[in-house]
Design goal:
- 2 copies of one chain form a homodimer.
- Chain A is an alpha/beta fold and 392 residues long.
- Chain A has 2 domains: 153 residues, 2-Layer Sandwich (Nucleotidyltransferase, domain 5), CATH 3.30.420.40; 181 residues, Nucleotidyltransferase, domain 5 (2-Layer Sandwich), CATH 3.30.420.40.
- The first copy, chain A, contains 15 helices and 13 strands.
- In chain A, helix 2 runs parallel beside helix 3, helix 5 crosses helix 13 and helix 8 packs parallel to helix 11.
- The longest helix of chain A has 25 residues.
- At the A-B interface, helix 2, strand 5, strand 6, helix 3 and helix 4 of A face helix 2, strand 5, strand 6, helix 3 and helix 4 of B.
């Protein structure tokens, strides 16, 4: 089988911007060979915040911004190609997550509020403005099959890290922390996934506040390393309701977000900057190890990704809390933490086009295997190229 | 080439309900073999009206109703199959227009209000709940290519009625009247399309009001036939700004809708029920013939479709105003007026899957040929069956 090329696009709920990765695919090997990051402008972020607001979003705004973002995603791809030695006709497909503007994982109020999710960034617009076929809008298919539409990247974790004999925990530390537990293949045990609690969210928020905007994160954990843990605060954090709940579970910015940090700062204003960051970093590390010890039967290796993998002190603390486990980062496996999600969507898109399952029912809660994704394509050459992926 | 089967789904801007048609396809011959019409409940209509309202629609409602309608569309397909002798595995594809909740054909206010359109009824949900692959969401691709996203059914008119030597006008009389002008193939003249003015909208509204809700339309034109034309009113209507504008042009419910009828009723309250209906029917007939004479070079045949084709008196009046032209209805060509749009989307979906252009740039204003449509599919068998359409 020859090599083919796919481009992954990720635009996360933080509304920061768009990550793109050009990926070389041979058999089931995925290698990032060029990347791009595009920040949203302040004005765009304001628009996107409004789109996510139940009070402010209108049908007209959603209608417009679906196309606007589609064009912006396309421009990101075209810029990525310009920086590389590739042309549109070299690329078999684009795979785009889209911008989430609403997500209802469980239904409650009334019969017209159903389990659903809304990602925008029109696939046909991306296809038309790049000349490449597009896969995207993955989450609704999982929900149609009874799942919560998340986590989707666990499937990529499986493709990248599933091992015949080793039990692995793939820990992402973004704003939120989440784990994909991959028991050894030969064990036939279920893959599970859940949010372990805060990732960098609390650390970043505290650094931003206490440095009065001078710093936005704790580089390599240098601040935390100078402090000592306050046991009272740590115990209070570890007693949080979310930590005590059993998986499957997910958390959002509402639980460990700004309000949470507000209250914490009021109560613990006697602690030094360094001690606070040290304690909250320890909390992040222990919330991870706590869940592992309580819910994951056996672990040989932990492989950490996301922004948190660049926090050396946090990694040390996780290692220290998991004595018999080998702790790695994604980079140790030649996978970029920064572009892991863009890569993940190339993998989902590739499997979709092969007509192979690209999700894990035991992770999302779907009742059975499904193909996740939709296709947008506006010219027959791109369509043909895209469908050749199936032929291998 | 063998026969294949597709199912078309149409849900119009009147928010009445869903029309479905099971269509047998052999070469480029399309034959409706089973149909279904499902009315929205009063509660559903209220939800949909709110979705179309810029004040009332929220991101949460759009997120939910996209899935809700997807499931309802799927149920429509499953009920259609139950009434037929076909099973899901006999059907190569579903083609769904979706429910339009916003449409911006021209952009104006600001850079975040762009040419765009929003159809809901999730394709993956339809696919998952039917087990059949789905094509849909056609309009954005046309807009991405610079078009207005409408009219789309002109392409179906071309497939069904394009003639080597005859010049044909395919006139739809729904709420609005619109024409697809098909010059003889061998002339190489451009196909054009535009709205001719009101279709049944004004007649229906007046009948409803003057019968105090007793009747909702003029059956076979029986009311109009008993009246006589009031020349003053007719002249005033023919002088309306929309009628005088040059194509390309489109009109919506706002121009000839309830407010328009309100004013007309106030000014002409001395006219009898029959004279009013007769005059407005004549206006509908003359607005069509006026445009033909002014903008269409040559016409050999007019082929009328839509609900208006069942109004015998209206057809007579059109024929009388177009002396040298032969007037037919769709039924004369064995095409059901009621399910013409559902059929049209089967045709669009079929061409899309063949990788062939399924729109007319000179009708929509797009800068070049494109494929319109997206694919939603959740199982590999359905995916494979769908892609076999390409092979013929």
């Amino acid at each position: 089988m020859g090599k083919i090329y796919g481009i992954g696009l990720m635009s996360g709920t933080s509304l920061d911007g768009i990550d793109g990765a050009l990926v070389e695919i041979s058999e089931n090997n995925y290698q990032i060979i060029e990347t791009i990051s595009v920040n949203y402008t302040e004005e765009e972020r304001r628009q996107l915040f409004n789109l996510c607001s139940i009070e402010k979003a209108t049908n007209k705004m959603i209608c417009s911004m679906n196309m606007y973002l589609g064009e912006k995603f396309a421009k990101t791809v075209n810029d990525l190609l310009k920086n590389s030695q590739f042309k549109a006709e070299d690329i078999s497909f684009i795979s785009s997550h889209g911008q989430t503007i609403y997500h209802i994982p469980k239904s409650n109020d009334n019969k017209y509020t159903v389990v659903s999710t809304l990602q925008i960034g029109d696939l046909s617009m991306i296809a038309e403005k790049t000349g490449i076929g597009v896969v995207g809008d993955f989450r609704t298919a999982d929900m149609a099959a009874g799942g919560q539409g998340a986590p989707l990247t666990s499937f990529a974790d499986k493709v990248l890290f599933y091992h015949e004999t080793k039990y692995r925990a793939i820990q992402n530390i973004g704003g939120i922390g989440n784990v994909t537990y991959l028991p050894a293949k030969q064990s036939n045990e279920n893959i599970i996934a859940f949010d372990t609690g805060p990732g960098n969210m609390m650390i970043d928020e505290l650094v931003l506040r206490m440095s009065k905007g001078g710093q936005s994160y704790d580089e390599n954990g240098n601040i935390a390393r100078k402090g000592t843990v306050d046991d009272l605060l740590l115990n209070e954090l570890m007693a949080e309701e979310y930590i005590r709940e059993s998986p499957p579970k997910t958390t959002g910015r509402e639980v460990f977000g700004k309000n949470f940090v507000d209250k914490l700062l009021q109560k613990y204003n006697h602690l030094s900057f360094e001690d606070l960051i040290c304690t909250v970093t320890e909390f992040t590390a222990q919330s991870i190890s706590f869940h592992y010890k309580k819910y994951l039967k056996q672990i040989d290796e932990v492989i950490i990704g996301g922004g948190g993998s660049y926090n050396g002190y946090l990694i040390e603390r996780i290692q220290s809390n998991l004595k018999d486990v080998q702790v790695f980062t994604h980079e140790d496996f030649n996978v970029s933490s920064d572009f892991k999600e863009a890569l993940a969507f190339v993998i989902l898109g590739h499997y979709f086009l092969k007509g192979e399952t690209n999700m894990i029912p035991t992770a999302t809660g779907a009742k059975h295997d499904v193909l996740l994704g939709k296709i947008g394509v506006t010219n027959s050459n791109a369509f043909e190229k895209m469908l050749k992926v199936k032929e291998g």
